[in-house]
Amino acid sequence: MIRIDDLSHAYPGRRGKPARLALRDLTLGVAEGSFTILAGPNGSGKSTLFRILCGLCLPSSGRVRIGGHDLLAAPAAARALMSVVFQSPAVDKQLSVAENLALHGRLYGLSGKALAARRDEALAWSGLEGRLGDRVGTLSGGLARQVELAKCLLTYPRVLLLDEPTSGLDPAARRAFLDALTAIQRQRKMTVLMTSHVFSEAEDADKVAILRDGDLLAHDSPAALRRQLGRDMLVVTARDAEALAPRLGQTLGLAVSRHGAEIRIEAIPASGPVPLIDAILSAFRGDIQSIAVRQPTLEDVFIHITGTTASRPRPGSVSAASVEAAQ
Ligand SMILES: Nc1ncnc2c1ncn2[C@@H]1O[C@H](COP(=O)(O)OP(=O)(O)OP(=O)(O)O)[C@@H](O)[C@H]1O
To answer: Quick one: signal sequence residues (predicted)?
Structure first.
């Protein structure tokens, strides 16, 4: 449904600075009726791709087709299939829920019974029943986001793009938003592409695409991505993880990586984790706060693939390569 081929985009350099390449030869397909999460550390090119898909930015080169329509050659036909939930609010806080929905519906040619039927349907799944007359500015952040989603879905788009729609919501509101979105996505077999920094959200997706520095590093189902790490990993936390990580790697003769206060050993030897835990405790008992064996989460996969966490640009990380080099 969304076909991206060899897409590149460079922002022109200003005041003598060189141009900045934000996307490099990106090729990605999003199947009709699927839910894809686009993830990547800060500056990886997510917003640039999002802006290109929305028609807000012309790419330097490459091709994008939406439902078979070329976004550059036939933008109106491509955009007619799409609706977009932006990160910043695009509803009028001074108007009521009903007024916002009516305004949007009318802009898209809906009126009378057809508009009322679509509005009532949206109210049923969005948790906004009983709030029709409330001004959007008086709603909680979570409900205001549901108005945004309800508004975008009034027109039955075949493709829905969402740019970090849950940012700033508390966990319960985040969950309610995602539950509503995934239910309606499945019911309508809608194609959804959503950027996110929150890996628990990616568990709900059919596919996760991971970008870094403008390159697509991975594009697969959550289960397949988790299988890339394959097995359990050992996670040690320490007050001074930065100092401990290289000592741990050298003592154990294993590759370790550090992310904040966590030191990870992804390749546990065939003898299993118990001898490793024994060795760590006997050498470093006083230095460590906790030690745990756990299955890799999607966030672990993300850190493994990109070498960084999602929301912080490249934390002071000791890569496996640098620890190995120090040995
Ligand atoms: N208007 C612009 N002019 C120049 N460079 C830009 C512009 N917008 C983005 N960039 C650069 O392009 C690269 C990709 O940025 P982009 O905003 O697409 O990343 P992102 O993954 O959305 O990051 P974030 O998660 O922080 O929003 C970065 O190096 C960024 O500095």
So the answer is: none
